[in-house]
Specification:
With 744 residues, the protein is mostly beta strands. Among the domains are: 23-40 and 597-656 and 691-743, Sandwich (Jelly Rolls); 163-326, no CATH class. Helices cover 3% and strands 40% of the residues. The protein contains 4 helices and 53 strands. Strands 1, 43, 45, 46, 47 and 51 form a 6-stranded antiparallel β-sheet that branches. Strands 2, 3, 44, 50, 52 and 53 form a 6-stranded antiparallel β-sheet that branches. A 4-stranded antiparallel β-sheet has the order 4-42-41-40, with no helix packed on it. A hairpin with a 7-residue loop joins strand 30 and strand 31 (414-421). The longest helix is centred in the C-terminal third of the chain and has 7 residues, at 584-590. Residues 1-7, 169-185, 187-216, 581-587, 640-644 and 648-687 have low confidence and may be disordered.
């Protein structure tokens, strides 16, 4: 009697209820959704840009990374922080989109930036329009705009007040230029300015002739004014206003016009494109007049001039100034940031650990005084991350998740809604949006996914998706959880989180969630401290290998810089013996490290008959034939015994002569820049089929004794693609010579 129960090989499941269709181990593989198979066709090599030149990295390990695009992707900036010579602080650099005078690596801040602690997510990179905010809660927040253009983000202090001087009258605009005297409210006369010296300013024109005389005393008006100034940045944001200036008091005559010189107008910080001036209406004697209400006076359209001549009447003033609360200084120590609905959200940090602040609409540097939420009284700990999702902004905390939801009120634009109590994260950089699945993140007890929205009476749902990873989750170093990093690769349709394990503070083990089949696998021997996705759609990572010598001493100093996960047939580099930095590029070419074996190991199965003894005759593998030479090892186990291994080997030579090197990012040899980028067509390349096919390879085991439970594993350094398999067996003591088949 034979049985047939076919399905594709699945991912890891370590709970006792797993079957042979599930795996106890899947290492260094990816799931190919097109061929519906597990394959080990990925490796990693150093990243390079268009001309195929290996970039000679020096220095130490990379601690953070982000990607920023300008001009609709025409310029790509791979920003990163790298430990400096002190090994206690970091430098801020980027890989330039084209050659510069200093090479492809451009240094923005040479040293002295803060090094993140063991449980600190470190620097965040938040693109918004034509700039990228670089923020970590310790150093000044930076607005990076490409090239070497960077400025401090936000307004960190109020402008000082301008200084209004006693006015001069304009009764004789076209006079001889003699100085004019203006009677002050204290009864003194004071010389102010000579008209002839200042007519070129264009604000001194006015009607009337004749100097003032004592005969005009019946027309005396007491006049008094105050001023304030604010900065306008290139993002359209307005700074907090200065305090009110001192009062400019004088005796005015109703038939004459006056000009008040406004001096010592402060210059704004870098990025200021103009200064905005405000003035009161006539305050009379300073007590009984118009009061301290400010109105728009004028814009100084530069950040240079420090003098303005005010000849604008009260009736010509503009709209009433915004409330004093319309802009405040940037929240000190804010550590996390994200953009949502044309606003910048910031939060967390040492000074306001439980607060989330948000900017005015379309003004990312302008933070109104009352635009914040304080979560300190709701439990759940400090803010640990901000992430926009669907129609809301998620606020992650150490032990909770909340959502900032838009309202219809212009005065109160958002409300706060609790999402989860008891589930949170400090692994800020593990938070990633997977299309069609939801937000995935690493918590101390495993991986969770959050999905849904708050419109149409729907709700947000959160669920753990890593229950089957058992002992691997327990290995994660919770004291260094903030170092974990995650990335979603749309080409491979996978979420990859690299985390510290076994009490160590650096990321050494990869957890990979494969979106097409919802399964998990693991990745090893990859020194990834930071993740990003490059313009080609491939995963890139910064290496901590120079600091950790991971995965071994011979490879520590060889794997400096930025690397790419792609179709190369290698696992980084090694240098033995160590050599000077300038020779590393050449030594890497000759010292590529072979990939570790890709492994798919089944779970335990009783072959549908748990109480009967079975003799396993063979395992037949359903493989995808790509035209390459295949070779690997099949090992099996029963009870507590592990048998010797069996090898399989296949070889074909009839591949289509026009093939593609799928996902191959680049290989450099000593003689030429042989660039095989993703999607490049290589004529006459017989390495791979254009149209792969399924073939079956039987591995005979011929077990002499029976077993109740059975499992096997496939491992190979050369490429394999495992789709499914068949186990052939007989029952011990069964009459006849019947063969049974179990397919997974």
């Amino acid at each position: 009697m034979s049985r047939l129960d076919r399905t594709g090989a699945l991912g890891m499941e370590l709970r006792p209820s797993q079957g042979a269709k599930q795996a106890l181990e899947v290492e260094n593989c990816r799931y190919d959704p097109i061929a519906q198979s597990w394959t080990n066709d990925r490796g990693w090599c150093q990243y390079y840009i268009e001309d195929g030149t290996i970039i000679p990295f020096d220095g130490r390990g990379i601690t953070s990374m982000g990607v920023f695009y300008r001009h609709q992707g025409a310029e790509e900036y791979i920003l990163f922080e790298q430990k400096d010579a002190t090994n206690e602080t970091v430098a801020l650099k980027y890989l330039a989109p084209q050659d510069t005078a200093g090479g492809r690596i451009v240094t923005l801040v040479g040293s002295g930036r803060s090094l993140a602690g063991n449980n600190d997510a470190g620097t965040n990179y938040v693109p918004m329009g034509d700039f990228c905010l670089i923020i970590n809660g310790e150093d000044r927040p930076i607005m990076f705009q490409g090239g070497t253009r960077m400025e401090t983000f936000g307004f960190h202090e109020r402008p000082p007040s301008p200084d209004p001087q006693p006015p001069f009258d304009k009764a004789n605009t076209y006079g001889s230029g003699d100085p004019y005297w203006v009677k002050q409210q204290d009864g003194t006369n004071k010389w102010a300015i000579s008209l002839a010296e200042n007519c070129s300013f264009g604000v001194i024109s006015g009607p009337g002739e004749g100097k003032l005389t004592s005969a005009d005393d019946e027309n005396i008006i007491k006049a008094s004014y105050q001023y304030a100034v604010s900065y306008i940045s290139q993002t359209g944001s307005e700074s907090p206003r200065s305090p009110l200036s001192k009062q400019a008091k004088f005796i005015a005559y109703s038939q004459n016009r006056y000009v008040i010189p406004l001096t010592t107008i402060p210059k704004g910080p870098d990025g200021t494109i103009k200064r905005r001036l405000y003035r009161t209406k006539n305050q009379g004697d300073g007590v009984s007049g118009a009061g301290a209400t400010l109105y728009f006076l004028d814009d100084l359209p530069n950040n240079i001039e420090t003098i303005y001549y005010d000849a604008i009447s009260d009736s010509a003033l503009g709209a009433e100034a915004p409330l004093w609360t319309a802009s405040d200084i940037f929240p000190a120590g804010a550590r996390y940031a994200a953009t949502f609905m044309n606003r910048m959200f910031v939060g967390g940090g040492s000074q306001h650990p439980t607060r989330v602040f948000f900017s005015a609409g379309n003004a990312p540097e302008q933070f109104p005084t009352n635009y914040y939420f304080d979560l300190g009284g709701s439990g759940g700990g400090e803010v640990t991350g901000l992430f926009p999702y669907n129609d809301l902004m998620l606020v992650f905390r150490r032990g909770a998740i909340d959502a900032v939801v838009p309202t219809d009120s212009p005065d109160v634009p958002f409300r706060l809604v609790p999402v989860s109590k008891g589930v949170g994260t400090t692994a800020t950089k593990s938070i990633v949006d997977i299309p069609g699945i939801g937000i995935i993140f690493l918590s101390p007890d495993g991986f969770y996914v959050l999905r849904g929205n708050l419109t149409n009476e729907q709700e947000l749902k959160i669920a753990k998706i890593s229950n089957g990873l058992g002992r691997y989750i327990k290995r994660i170093s919770t004291s260094a959880l903030g170092k974990a990093v995650g990335v979603y690769n749309a080409k491979d349709e996978e979420y990859w989180c690299h985390a510290p394990v076994d009490g160590q503070p650096n990321n050494t083990l990869g957890f990979v969630f494969h979106a097409p089949n919802g399964q998990w696998s693991m990745r090893t021997e990859i020194p990834a401290s930071a993740f990003a996705v490059c313009q080609e759609g491939l995963t890139i990572f910064g290496s901590h290998s120079p600091d950790t010598n991971f995965p071994d001493v011979a490879r520590g100093d060889a794997n400096k810089g930025v690397f790419v996960w792609c179709g190369v047939d290698q696992w980084g580099y090694q240098v033995s013996p160590p050599s000077p930095v300038e020779t590393y590029a050449l030594l890497r070419i000759a010292n590529k490290v072979a990939k570790p074996a890709g492994v798919w190991g089944s779970g335990w199965t009783e072959l549908s008959a748990p109480e009967q003894l079975k003799k396993i005759q063979s395992v037949t593998l359903d493989l995808i034939d790509t035209g390459e030479t295949l070779g690997g090892t099949v090992a099996y186990a029963f009870g507590k015994s592990v048998t010797p291994t069996f090898t399989y080997y296949t070889d074909w030579h009839d591949a289509n002569p026009i093939a593609t090197r799928d996902f191959s990012f680049g290989e450099i040899d000593g003689s030429s820049a042989d660039r095989h980028r993703y999607g490049a067509v290589v004529l006459g390349d017989t390495a791979k089929f254009d149209n792969p096919r399924v073939i079956r390879k039987r591995v005979d085991l011929n077990m002499e004794n029976g077993c109740k439970w059975f499992r096997f594993s496939v491992s190979a350094v050369s490429r394999f693609q495992l789709r499914s398999y068949t186990i052939q067996y007989t029952y011990v003591g069964e009459r006849g010579n019947q063969t049974h088949v179990w397919e997974g």
